[in-house]
């Protein structure tokens, strides 16, 4: 007997397959903007409703115009990874099962899979096995979660209960971060009520690394609770702060050390000693934020918050109510580790990806992307007038054309209009640059060769003009 879901799911599968089949050779950017999308999709709210099949067809047709190919092998913008086939398929099951992953009693399946995925991540990253782990939407909420635990921890040690008494009258917290810190760290401080004036910035070097000697000089001048935010993987260069020395300085001062490892934490899984060495000392931190929808290549949204002191983590996040059925045993209630209650079971695609890849598969994924980044740098730097602005140590390549801001921005715009690949622009130490991020499991040597050729073709055309 057929289900009422069958015709629509079959139709959705056909549309999805067509989209995925087209990814490797499609125009990588979006072909239409707001005006075209609104013209095609906007309408008065129907009184009687429309045929569901027609609604799906409308969405599928417009995805070819208004959706970018950010899952494509030649998309190199914003450190966006494509979805592994097993992770995408698992995510379809997550939507089908429609589990609220907030507490164990609602879904023992989701709770168990997330508990196992959390343990596997700690093993893969070789972080303290007793750490708390929460599956959040992305690194923004991972920072929020970890820094909430940090706020709780440093104020607890100062004799203040921030969950009970709030911040009014609490000891002032200083948050120290590099000038190259990602904006999501700053946003988390706003969300947590610490404010931007709590932020003390430390100068960075020419690769984007925090100057740890300056940190050591700064810390003794700060009175009261301190949180230090370090970076594993600069968003422009991929550079890592010198984490071992930073950890020693932070802990000597009694500070909490948080690490932004949005994509850089995955260097711990590399099979190459040089790549793993970038993260030397990262295990000494008190909390870590990363994304699975970047280098593990699971579908959006999937971030991970990890806190060494599981008690601080839980106390900062947990909630309870008389109507809930919360565990007092070994079972995992996800609400203890994340800001949300009702949410999809986003840890399940992480479980599927890790189980399908294994340690060797994750290492290969990371190392292939790093190799493709080095390939990009080699092909582009061979051209006169093209400069690689920073050492290529991970999966990021920072490129400048003609040593000219206007020309560099024109090349970025030209590449996006060309459609062979997609890369984004940035500003690095006052200079316009193109940023290439290689994060997709499907990116091949041929993809890089074709993309570099397109970039140079656009550059030569503009230079000659």
Automatic annotation (TrEMBL):
- Matching Pfam families: Pyridoxal_deC
Which keywords label this protein?
A: Decarboxylase, Lyase, Pyridoxal phosphate
Where does the signal sequence lie?
none
Q: Does the keyword Lyase apply?
A: yes
Q: Which domain of life is it from?
A: Bacteria
Cofactor(s) recorded in Swiss-Prot or TrEMBL: pyridoxal 5'-phosphate
Ubl conjugation: is it a keyword of this entry? no
Family membership noted in the UniProt record: Belongs to the group II decarboxylase family.
Q: What is this protein called?
A: Pyridoxal-dependent decarboxylase
- What organism is this sequence from? Cognatiluteimonas sedimenti
């Amino acid at each position: 007997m057929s289900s009422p879901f069958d015709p629509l799911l079959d139709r959705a599968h056909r549309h999805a397959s067509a989209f995925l089949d087209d990814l490797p050779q499609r125009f990588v950017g979006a072909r239409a903007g707001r005006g075209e999308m609104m013209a095609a999709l906007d309408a008065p709210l129907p009184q009687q409703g429309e045929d569901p099949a027609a609604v799906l067809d409308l969405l599928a047709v417009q995805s070819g115009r208004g959706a970018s190919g950010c899952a494509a092998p030649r998309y190199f913008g914003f450190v966006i990874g494509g979805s592994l086939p097993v992770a995408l398929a698992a995510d379809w099951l997550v939507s089908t099962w429609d589990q609220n992953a907030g507490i164990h009693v609602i879904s023992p399946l989701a709770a168990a899979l997330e508990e196992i995925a959390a343990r596997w991540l700690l093993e893969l990253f070789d972080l303290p096995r007793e750490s708390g782990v929460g599956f959040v939407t992305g690194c923004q909420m991972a920072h929020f979660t970890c820094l909430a635990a940090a706020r709780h921890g440093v104020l607890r040690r100062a004799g203040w209960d921030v969950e009970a008494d709030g911040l009014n009258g609490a000891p002032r917290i200083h948050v120290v971060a590099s000038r190259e810190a990602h904006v999501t760290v700053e946003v988390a401080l706003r969300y947590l009520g610490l404010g931007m004036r709590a932020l003390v910035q430390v100068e960075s070097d020419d690769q984007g690394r925090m100057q740890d000697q300056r940190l050591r000089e700064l810390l003794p001048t700060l009175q009261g609770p301190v949180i230090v935010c370090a970076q594993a993987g600069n968003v422009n260069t991929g550079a890592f702060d010198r984490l071992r020395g930073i950890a020693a300085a932070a802990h000597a001062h009694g500070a909490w050390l948080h690490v932004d490892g949005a994509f850089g934490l995955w260097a711990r899984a590399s099979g190459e000693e040089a790549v793993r060495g970038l993260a030397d000392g990262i295990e000494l931190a008190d909390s870590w934020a990363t994304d699975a929808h970047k280098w593990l290549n699971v579908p959006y949204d999937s971030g991970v918050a990890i806190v060494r002191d599981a008690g601080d983590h839980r106390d900062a996040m947990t909630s309870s109510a008389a109507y809930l059925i919360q565990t007092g045993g070994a079972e995992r209630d996800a609400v203890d580790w994340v800001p949300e209650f009702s949410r999809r079971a986003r840890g399940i695609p992480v479980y599927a990806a890790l189980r399908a890849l294994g340690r060797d598969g994750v290492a290969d994924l990371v190392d292939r992307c790093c190799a493709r980044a080095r390939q990009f740098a080699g092909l582009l730097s061979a051209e006169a007038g093209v400069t690689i602005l920073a050492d290529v140590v991970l999966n990021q390549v920072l490129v400048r054309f003609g040593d000219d801001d206007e020309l560099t921005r024109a090349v970025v715009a030209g590449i996006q209009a060309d459609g062979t690949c997609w890369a984004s622009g940035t500003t690095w130490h006052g200079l316009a640059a193109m940023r290439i991020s290689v994060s997709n499991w499907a990116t091949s040597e041929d993809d890089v060769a074709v993309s570099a050729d397109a970039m140079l073709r656009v550059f030569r055309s503009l230079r000659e003009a």
